[in-house]
Each structure stands twice: as structure tokens, then as C-alpha cells.
Amino acid sequence: MNKRVLITGAAGFVGSHVVQYFLENTSFDVVCLVRLNKKGDLKNLKDHVDNPRCFFVYHDLKFDLNESVRDYIGHVDYILHLAANSHVDRSILHPKEFFEDNLTGTVNILEFLRLHMPEARFINFSTDEVYGAAPEGYKYKEEDRFRPSNPYSASKACQSMASFSYFNTYSLDIINTYTMNIFGPNQNSEKLIPKAIKYAIERKPMPVFAELSGNTLLSVGSRHWLDVRNVGESLLFLLENGVKGESYNIVGTDEFTNEEIVLKINLLLNTEPMIEYVDLHKTRPGHDRRYAIDGAKLSKLGWEPKITFEEGIKNIIDILRAKK
After folding, report:
1. Helix intervals (H) in the chain
2. Dist CA 188 CA 80 (whole Å)
3. Catalytic residue among 29, 101, 129, 227
4. CA distances in angstroms from 286 to 54, 140, 148, 217, 223, listed in the order given
5. Measured in whole angstroms, how far is the alpha carbon of residue 56 from the centre of its chain?
């Protein structure tokens, strides 16, 4: 009998790519838990609707998984908890919604694990933003303290703490991951990379958030970046090799400023860069200038990302050109 993996948030950007990876690279049956709204769209899974190894369950994790939902899910060997509300600007406007989705939703899936699937391995998928802004020259390690800067990252930090408490209290097989900025095909068009590609093609000035003093540019935000196709591989690796109760940073190889991202995209498109610097602190309260995490722990365990940043950007551009 095939192993079965339950993926929450399966219709979202990252979740749908993870579903595809597991269908293409394992013999697992994949149970897709989806809440069809603005944060998840079934069109991301349209290629798998007729796959006999892919099953769909519709449920909002703000509510308990009742008997009917549990029956639809059936037995699972693994749970990948990717469901999340993840837009920082929206979390500043609607903070309660984010704690309901990310904390309450996580506790409900943990209760499903505790009461009905206690032998399953559970991976809680979180973000590097829980650590807060990273000082220049430093990358946060898994044991560093959390210092979230906005309601989104605070709700994700709470999610991680809930997961660890269920490991510690109930001895459940739970792993926490922290992942840097992810990019790839079908990402929301308001995210930096798809927006920069769109604006370069349309010849529009690309806004880049920066620290400004009057008209003087002081610094530009920077991030590490990870192609979404690396995510599924990293999660499968951790299902097979991760240590119960441990946390792992999932990290790509490169750190770039947002300005460098825009310049690289224009270089690949052979277009002249058009950048408009926007004051970070005036327009985006609660945002951090730099995020950085250390991937040495997962690297020592044996995993490194295979797809580079440049390969990922070229892949997105090729897909966009093929659609024309």
C-alpha cells in the first residue's frame, strides 16, 4: 500500500508546487486539504484533478476537523502543514485574521495529529521572518530567539511554538522548518519577483523599498531567495532524514538586495532598468530591511538546493514567453 501524505494549504502557491513534486517524485498518495478563497485557488492543482493518487478535501482550518472531514482524509503517514495567511501588509490591517488562520489553524491540525494520527510525522512549515530583522553580517540559526516585527511573523512564531509544545508535551513526531523568500511560477503578481518581471516587460518604473534620508539613498532591503521547486525536495528529505523535535532552516545559496533582483531581471530580459526608490519606514511599517538565515544544519544532514536563483528566474521568464 502506498504511503499517504496530507498537505494543508495545497492549493496555494507553495503548496501546489509541493503537491506536484510529491506526485512526480514519490509513489505517495497525496491528500490535498484546501480552503478555496483568495489565498488558495484550485486552478493551481488543475493538472492533478484526474490523478488517481491525488485526493481533495475541502475544509477551513479555523474549525475543528470533524468526523466527516477525518473520514475524507483517511489514514495518513505524513502531514505537511503549509496552510497560512502570509501577506504582511494585510496582516497590519487585519491582525486578528492572521492569528486565527495561522495559530488557531495550526492548533486544529495538531489536535488532529494528537487525537487521530499520533504515529504520523508532522512538518510545520514556517518562515525566516519569525527571527525578525537580521544584523549585517549575521544569519540566524535555528536556536536563535524569535523577535517577529509584524502580526504575520508573530502569528507564524506562535504557530512554531504551538508545534514545539505538542512535540514536547505529547512526544509527537514534529519538525519545524523556517524558509527564506520563495519564488517561482504562478506566484502572486504583487510579490517582488513576478512584479519586477511584469514591470520590466511593460516598461514601468519598479518601486524598490529603501531607507532614505531626504533624497539620499542609505540602504536597500535584502533577502535570501529559494526557488519553489527546491521546497518539495527539501520536505521529502526531512520526512526521510529529519530528527524528531528538531528545527531546520531551508536556505537557498544567494542573498541579494531588492535592487540587485530588479537589475538581474532586466539583464535577463535585455531591458533598461527603471527603479523608483520608496521610503520603507513611511510606507511599510512593521517590515524588516534584511532577513537572513543559516542553512548549515540542514546542509550537514545532507541537503542542498539544486536549482539556483538564476535558473529559477530564467524558468519563470521562459514560461511567461511560452504563454504569449
Report:
1. 13-25, 67-73, 88-93, 95-99, 105-116, 151-170, 192-202, 229-241, 258-269, 280-283, 296-301, 309-323
2. 22
3. 129
4. 39, 19, 9, 20, 16
5. 21
d(CA 108, CA 149): 25
Compute, in degrees rounded to 10, the torsion defined by CA atoms 138, 140, 145, 149: 80
Query: Which pLDDT value is given to residue 87?
Result: 83
The DSSP symbol for 253 reads S
Scan for cell 532614505, then name that residue.
212
What SS3 class is residue 32? strand
Residue of 101, 128, 142, 255 marked active site: 128
- For residue 286, the number of C-alpha atoms closer than 13 Å in the C-beta half-sphere is 15
Residue pair 314/230 in contact (Cβ under 8 Å)? The answer is no
Q: Which amino acid is at 159?
A: Q
| DSSP sequence for 198-236 | HHHHHT-PEEEEEEEETTEEEEE-EEEEEETHHHHHHHH
Which residue, chain included where needed, has cell 478555496?
Answer: 36
Q: Catalytic: 129? A: yes
| Dihedral pair phi/psi, residue 112, rounded to 5° | -60, -45
Secondary element (H or E) of residue 179: strand 173-179
Q: CB-based contacts of 75: which residues, under 8 Å, 6+ apart?
A: 4, 117
SS3 161: helix
How many other C-beta atoms lie within 10 A of the C-beta of residue 114? Answer: 15
Edge-to-edge order in the sheet of strand 29-34: 54-58, 29-34, 4-8, 78-81, 121-127, 173-179, 247-250
- The one catalytic residue in 152, 178, 199, 248 is 152
pLDDT along the chain (324 residues), means of 10: 95 96 98 78 87 96 97 98 91 96 98 98 97 93 96 97 98 97 89 91 88 64 90 98 98 87 92 84 63 95 94 88 72
- Quote the pLDDT of residue 42: 82
